[in-house]
Amino acid sequence: LSNRGLTSIPEEVFDITDLEYLVVSKNKLTSIPEAIGRLQKLYRLDAHGNMLTRLPQAIGSLQKLTHLFIHDNQLKEVPSGVCSLPNLKVLSVGNNKLSAFPPGVEKLRKLRELHIYDNQLTEVPPGVCSLSNLEKLSVSNNNLSTFPPGVEKLQKLRELRIYGNQLTEVPSGICSLSNIELLSVGNN
């Protein structure tokens, strides 16, 4: 259902309870209905490139969700339930209007990629440095002045993008990351 000029998701979509993959990207959606909670087999939701200003709390009930793409929208907050999705591997919320991130990101134990670039964050979400499976972290183009301690715990980290912030030093512990392939720190 991508790139169709939709202003709402057709109600009958939420009756397809065996649906596993829903793509509604590049439309004109401003919200996703709470009925998304009926799609309990959903493992991938791609709603990037819309005009979403809010997400339903029901997103937190999608326990099989592994990939959530909600970048390139107008979101000011992410529902706290997102941090309770036990199987989430990729979370992309870049290019929104977030000034804070819900607490509990450390519960996303399976998270491999976290993309929160191009927002208005003043701090990296607390708990990020305890995500031992994290391979890619992009917090570029925010308003960060510090990076939390503990980056050396992210031993699987391959890509760290922290450019375009207000950092005055490279996070301590970077040198102990043996798998790092890309480190982008410019424009700080």
From TrEMBL:
Transmembrane segments: none
SUPFAM superfamilies assigned: RNI-like
Keywords for this protein: Leucine-rich repeat, Repeat
Disease resistance R13L4/SHOC-2-like LRR domain location: 105-185
UniProt KW Ribosomal protein keyword: no
Pfam families documented for this protein: LRR_14, LRR_4, LRR_8
InterPro entries found in the cross-reference section: Leu-rich_rpt (IPR001611), Leu-rich_rpt_4 (IPR025875), Leu-rich_rpt_typical-subtyp (IPR003591), LRR_dom_sf (IPR032675), LRR_domain-containing (IPR050216), LRR_R13L4/SHOC2-like (IPR055414)
Protein name: Leucine-rich repeat protein SHOC-2
